[in-house]
Design brief:
The complex is a heterodimer of chains A (about 325) and B (about 525).
Chain A lengths: L2 H30 L4 H6 L5 H11 L5 H13 L7 H9 L11 H36 L4 H15 L2 H14 L16 H35 L2 H8 L4 H30 L2 H7 L4 H10 L3 H29 L1 H4 L3
Chain B lengths: L5 H6 L1 H10 L12 E6 L16 H11 L4 E3 L5 E3 L2 E6 L5 E6 L13 H9 L11 H5 L1 E8 L2 E6 L6 H4 L13 H7 L6 E7 L3 E6 L14 E6 L3 H9 L5 E2 L7 H6 L3 E6 L4 E5 L10 H9 L3 H7 L5 E3 L23 H10 L5 E7 L7 H13 L3 E7 L5 H4 L9 E3 L5 H8 L17 H12 L3 H18 L2 E7 L1 E6 L2 E2 L9 H5 L1 H4 L1 E2 L1
Parallel strand pairs in B: 1-10, 1-11, 15-16
Antiparallel strand pairs in B: 2-3, 4-5, 5-7, 6-7, 8-9, 9-10, 11-19, 12-19, 13-17, 13-18, 14-18, 20-21
Classes of the chains: A mainly alpha (about 325), B alpha+beta (about 525).
């Protein structure tokens, strides 16, 4: 077995163990929330009888340990359970509550793809932008351009996301009506329109994640510029740009990839504020909605997806760093 | 309220029939066409076409205001008109009600509407294990009888003169009998708009049906699109940038910006929505009338309207009956902030000072914690020390409201006095948030039952006025303010001169009543 494959398998195994531990934490945390679905969905109308009726319907009257293992058993078979919110209405009419309308997977899927779409558009804009900015900043370090790039990215990462969002809305939607301030994309929307509606939130997120990646690129490259082999390259008479792109960058890739992966994970799991400001129907809003109404199966599934996204992206980052480093690729 | 009196309407079923058939005088410029785009709050991923679960404006407007109809409808001027019923009459004891149904109406799937649909739809609310908010309304019916295909008869356990009003409740949607499951899954009703697409918590698009019994009176848009925007700033942005035509609930802080835009206008209506501080009258010290009175004089109502509602409301008089109600006692003397009187009542209760906890959270109403702090400041001058307990918004309605002795809450109000009182002030009902009972006022509970079955309007007014006075003087709920419905629209949309004030957005029926100018 090739060492790389072995590492991948090892990491995947560890990832699964992590997921399992996370699932226990999720379940415990969700169960510690005050109030439950029955109370939350009934709100002001939570009479004891109605609460008891809903709890009985959803099996919430069983002990937590039993519920955990039932859920885990389902999740292992790829069945994330049924959304309480939708099951609730299915059972009203005597329909089989295991019907497809109520499944968590069906509820999460469109939101998840929306989130992936937003993360994808953002990544396509932000990653090249940040890396190129970082390379240029390293190339012209301590120049006015470098300082400006640093100040610009640090300012944007230091501002709250909603503030950046409103600034962009002000300049790109209100004062100059170029882009829509509402990103209410829906199923069946054409790709062009979808892209147009997604652009403002994607730009906002770009501002948020650029600083990290750009600073890491810059620092990693500058770090290498003092190495003897770079000096050698310079002495050969290579242009500074070529020195950086051909010689410094490949060796600086590992830390850059790590930061990029972390930021991508953030784009999948942490953009609820931006989703709310732009009314983007992503998984973050669904998650917050579900916490609010204590739709526990959906909350748990979202948490699992978030955890899996982090684990997978970190795994990818590790593997990519290994692949980019011959010393790790061919260990003695 | 203007228009035909409700009592007159009830007495003559014929008049109701004429009224319903002609609808309201429609302004000459109303015309068909266009797409109404609305950004609304109150949407949830748990939304569905099941009327029993509806609790906020988004589904109210999409269901009752678009896809579905009910038996009756509260018109913009507050009078009751027929929707799927054309007219109705009661026996003199107001116990047996016969409704004539509209003929020639079809559901969106082509099924003809008839008496079975009404009975089966109403029975949903009292089905075994039902969690419907309208359960008590339907449970009061002891028998539902189909007389002919276009006539149903309801027999009530106790007489209720307001029964036709109750049938306009937005939970009581009429589904096609035998296909209810499918109708709830896909949204099949008799309304002006059929469902094109519906994503819970995200978006609803409806298309005008080809021909409808409301043709010529209502339903001017070719298409309607409701977008779920729970964040108020995002709603304002959407309106300002022209992506939607109208929004509900504007943010008072940025109201000036809306006003400065000549393309937009603000619609403000005083309705029955009110913000309250209920206390449990069976728990010391709130069981003493004098303590309650001291608390009534210790709150500066005008200051709350000015600072919490930024002027968008009116002071309350500790009764839940508002200007959108028929028997609102407008000339009843107004309670005012009076530290001396408050101190006097404290002394009567045998106290020098009073220390109490007041539980509040933003879940109760926007600005509830600030309102509690204002109360704290104004009560201090009266020798009442209020300790404001900030509760988490999550689970507020299940853990704090109805549980803590003194808390903050809100009510949207109800179309009729009896409906409001029997929801929140009748002895033993689940939402009685002050535990108001015959121990506190036997007279109140007696009047409540008597007025319900009374058909004489003048007598009813007398009774309801007396009940409002009892609540003002002795009641356990501090109602410092009535909050206006404030919505905004751009100039592309026109509305009739009279806009409904029972619920926001023209009683959630903007898709039926408004048009593109």
């Amino acid at each position: 077995m090739s060492p790389v494959l072995k590492i991948i398998l090892q990491r995947l195994g560890l990832g699964l163990v992590t997921l399992f531990v996370v699932s226990i934490l999720i379940f415990a945390a969700v169960n510690m929330l005050p109030g439950d679905f029955a109370q939350a969905i009934l709100g002001q109308g939570a009479t004891p009888e109605a609460v008891a009726a809903i709890r009985r319907d959803l099996g919430l009257d069983q002990p937590p340990v039993t519920r955990y293992f039932l859920w885990l058993a389902g999740a292992l078979q790829g069945d994330l359970g049924n959304s309480f919110a939708q099951a609730n209405f299915a059972s009203f009419v005597g329909a089989d509550s295991g019907g497809s309308a109520a499944s968590v997977a069906k509820q999460i899927a469109p939101r998840f793809w929306n989130t992936m779409f937003l993360a994808g558009v953002t990544a396509v804009i932000a990653v090249p932008f940040a890396v190129i900015l970082g390379i240029l900043a390293a190339l012209y370090r301590n120049s006015a351009f470098d300082k400006f790039a640093n100040i610009f990215t640090l300012t944007s990462i230091s501002s709250p996301e909603f503030f950046l969002a409103y600034v962009l809305i002000l300049f790109l939607a209100v004062l100059n009506p170029w882009l829509p301030s509402l990103s209410n994309i829906y199923i069946g929307m054409g790709f062009g329109e979808r892209l147009e509606k997604t652009l403002l939130p994607a730009l906002t997120l770009t501002l948020v994640v650029t600083a990290h990646m750009m600073r890491m690129t810059r620092a990693a490259i500058i770090n290498l510029l003092a190495s003897p082999y770079i000096e050698m390259a310079r002495l050969k008479g290579m242009s500074p740009m070529r020195v950086i792109v051909r010689h410094a960058l490949p060796n600086a890739l590992a830390p850059i990839i790590n930061v990029v992966a972390l930021n991508l994970a953030y784009l999948i799991t942490g953009v609820v504020v931006v989703e709310v400001v732009f009314v983007y129907p992503g998984i973050g809003q669904l998650f917050v909605d579900s916490v609010k109404i204590r739709d526990i199966p959906v909350v748990q599934a979202c948490c699992l997806i978030f955890a899996a996204a982090y684990i997978l992206l970190n795994l990818t980052a590790d593997i990519m760093s290994i692949l980019s480093n011959p010393r790790l690729r061919h260990p003695k | 309220m203007i228009g035909i009196s409700r009592r007159g309407l009830l007495k003559s079923g014929a008049a109701a029939g004429v009224l319903a058939a002609t609808g309201f005088p429609v302004l000459a410029q109303a015309k068909r066409g266009g797409r109404l785009r609305v950004a609304l709050s109150g949407a949830n991923t748990s939304d569905s076409w099941d009327g029993r679960t509806h609790s906020d404006i988004f589904m109210q407007a999409a269901a009752q205001g678009g896809v579905f109809d009910s038996l009756t409808e509260v018109a913009a001027d507050g009078s009751l008109v027929g929707e799927l019923a054309t007219d109705w009459e009661a026996t003199p004891d107001a116990k047996t009600w016969t409704f004539n149904l509209r003929q020639g109406v079809t559901f969106h799937n082509g099924k003809a509407f008839g008496a079975d649909d009404v009975i089966e739809s109403l029975q949903l609310h009292v089905a075994e294990g039902s969690k419907s908010a309208a359960q008590p309304l339907v449970a009061a019916i002891s028998e539902m009888k189909k007389i002919t295909d276009s006539q149903v008869q309801f027999t009530l356990t106790n007489g209720n003169a307001d029964f036709p009003y109750l049938m306009s409740d937005y939970h009581l949607l009429i589904y096609p009998a035998g296909q209810i499951e499918e109708a709830i899954a896909n949204g099949i009703g008799t309304g002006l708009y059929s469902v094109v697409s519906f994503e819970p918590g995200v978006r609803f698009v409806g298309k005008r049906v080809e021909s409808h019994y409301k043709d010529g009176n209502f339903g001017w848009f070719d298409e309607i699109e409701f977008i779920a925007v729970n964040d108020s700033t995002a709603r304002m942005n959407a309106l300002m940038t022209g992506q939607v035509d109208t929004i509900n609930r504007i943010d008072f802080k940025t109201e000036a910006l809306l006003k400065a835009n000549p393309m937009l206008r603000i619609q403000e209506l005083t309705g029955n929505q009110h913000f309250t501080f209920p206390m449990l009258t069976d728990i010391a010290p709130f069981d003493q009338v004098n303590v309650r009175q001291a608390l009534k004089y210790g709150v500066n109502r005008q200051e709350m309207v000015d600072k919490i509602l930024q002027g968008h409301g009116r002071v309350g008089n500790d009764t839940p009956i508002g200007p959108a109600n028929q028997y609102f006692a407008a000339d009843m003397e107004q309670l005012a902030y009076d530290p001396d009187k408050a101190k006097f009542h404290l002394k009567e209760a045998g106290m020098e000072s009073l220390n109490i906890d007041l539980s509040a959270s933003s879940a109760a109403f926007a600005g509830a914690v600030d309102a509690a702090q204002l109360y704290q400041a104004s009560a201090k001058a009266c020798g009442i020390n209020i300790n404001v307990v900030q509760e988490p918004a999550d689970g507020y309605w299940s853990n704090v409201w109805l549980k803590k002795p003194f808390s903050a809450a809100y009510w949207s109000g109800r179309a009729t006095e009896d409906w409001m009182f029997s929801n929140a002030f009748e002895e033993g009902v689940p939402w009685n948030d002050s535990h108001w009972s015959s121990n506190d006022s036997e007279r109140f509970q007696t009047l409540l039952i008597e007025a319900r079955a009374e058909l004489d309007s003048a007598k009813r007014r007398e009774m309801y006025t007396e009940m409002q006075m009892i609540l003002r003087d002795e009641g356990g709920v501090i109602i410092p303010m009535f909050a206006n419905w404030v919505q905004a629209l751009n100039n592309k949309v026109a509305t009739p001169e009279v806009v409904g004030n029972l619920w926001q957005m023209d009683n959630a029926r903007m898709a039926e009543r408004w048009w593109m100018s």
